[in-house]
Amino acid sequence: MSQINKQEVSTQGTTNLPQEFSLDTFKVSALKDVQNKREQQLKIVEDNPYIEIVDNESFTTAKKNRTALVTARTTLEKEQKLVVKKVKENITIPITNLYNEFIDITKPHEEKQQTEVKRWEDIKEQERLEKVRIEEERKQKHLDNIKEIVSAISEQIKNLDYTTSITYQVKPLLNGEEVSIESFEEYGTTLLSELEGLKFTLSTRKSTLKEQEDLKIERDRLENERKEIERINGHRQTLSNFYNSWINKIYSSTYENFQALKKEFHEEKAPLVQEFQPEYAAKRADLVKEFEQRESILNKLEQGRIETNRIAEENAKKQAELEATKKAEEQRIKSENKRLEDERKALQEEKNELLRSKRIDSLKNLGFDNDLVLNLEHCKIIFPLEDILCPEEEFQDLLNNTKYQIENHPIAEVEDTTQEVDYEEPPVLDIESFDNEQIVLVELKEQQKIMQTLLVDFCDYCLSKYGHINQDYIVEFLTRE
Fold it and tell me: Taking the model in full, what pTM does it have?
């Protein structure tokens, strides 16, 4: 390590170090500031030994010893900070400044020379990159040409049919001309490898095309056989249809159209069934026999039909008489039911009118006018006329609520230090809104009515127990027994 010559290092309140000394031989323990510190701490530890607390006296002694130990530690920590600060001010900072002066002597020359070295390195780097670029272009050209050749041959193999595949050969063609393997330099082996792969692809393609050609020939043969079978089956189906069609016509014919059907059968031309003429003649002979049997059956059925019609006419006449009697009875019952229904409706309307009059009188007794409006000092209540015929239980609830509203004014707010909520007396009916102190009543939903009842109960609970309403009582109200 370098020598620090004639550097005066001093500490506040201590003797000066020698003007010339080496950091290699410098010892911290030589400083006056740390002299006898070890002995002092050992003495404090000896004077304040560890004490096990068993009573108040030992507890007091233990706290005293602990305080002495803490004081010894904190005193040293404060002195440590002062010594470190002196070392920084008198040694570390002056050394840093001195070495910066030494560095400033050579640094400008270093930077100038470095700039020249960097300039020449940049020139050589550009030359290297140009060589790399040219080499990469050469390699890429070979790879692109190989890719173009492989792509062209692959496309040709893909588009081969069976006829052209027989004479097709894999050749390296570039721009329509065959090229040599040597022209691709070190990538000649790559081109050879690709051509071998293409030859294998060509072989596979030829095998596939050969299989497809064999399958086509076999399909053509099977198709010809199928057409021949369809032709024969078609003639057989024609004969079957011919026979079945006439059988259906024969046995679905009536006595009236039978002779015309028989004439149509004899005048119909024979179907074209080629080699199946003997089968046609046999089926036609069978149909002639069926015609003869059907004619005999129809003659017997016609005689039976005439007798049946006579009996049916007599039965129809009797049935018509029964239907007329039944219809007259149904009409009489319908008229009687209508008369009873009209009487029931008239009676119900009379009952409704009596109930309406009775309930209006009840409302007037409470103070409602002819328009069913009750004007109070604190609110205005309008009873909808269309609700006058509501169920008795609901009407009684409305009367009770109205009486309560008449007899009870809203309770004025009471100042209190606790947090309170605004409270108003429950409305006689369901209140929709307030407009200029007028209450507009509407019918609440079932869930809203339940919530209204719960709020009224809560308000009654608070007023009866505490004399005012406060949201702090909500939990107490809900959990009350």
Answer: 0.32
Q: What is the DSSP letter of 18?
A: P
Can you read off the two tokens belonging to residue 78? Answer: 């404060």
CA-CA distances (angstroms) from residue 261 to 246, 282, 295, 383? Answer: 9, 20, 11, 87
How far apart (Å, rounded) are the C-alpha atoms in residues 110 and 236?
113
Residue pointed to by tokens 């049997």: 293
In order, the DSSP letters of 229-240 are: HHHHHHHHHHHH
Q: Are 346 and 370 in contact (CB under 8 A)?
A: no
The helices-and-strands tally (H runs, E runs) of the chain is: 10, 6
In DSSP terms, 385 is beta-bridged to none
Residue 425 has pLDDT above 50, yes or no: no
Cα separation of the two ends of the chain = 91
The radius of gyration of the chain's CA atoms, rounded to the nearest angstrom, is 62
* Nearest-angstrom CA–CA distance, 363 and 369: 8
Helix-strand-coil split of the chain, %, nearest 5: 70, 5, 25
The structure tokens listed for 247 are 């059988």
Indicate the range of 73-82, 255-264, 291-300, 468-477 predicted with least confidence: 468-477
| Residue 225 in tokens | 């056989």
DSSP 379-427: -EEE--GGGTTS-HHHHHHHHHHHHHHHH-PPPPP---SS------PPP
The Cβ-side half-sphere exposure at 209, using a 13 Å CA radius, reads 17
Could you give the 3-state DSSP secondary structure of residue 161?
coil
- From 424, 404, 395, 420, select the one nearest 412 (Cα to Cα): 424
pLDDT band for 18, please (50, 70, 90 cuts): low
The packing angle between helices 37-47 and 56-87, to 10°, is 170
CA 285, CA 292: separation in Å to the nearest integer? 11
* pLDDT value of residue 410: 59
Alpha helices in 48-92 (DSSP H): 56-87
Per residue in 153-165, pLDDT (tens digit) is: 999 899 989 888 8
pLDDT at 13 over 60: no
| 367-399 pLDDT tens trace | 888 888 888 777 778 888 777 888 888 878 887
Average pLDDT of the residues of the chain: 81
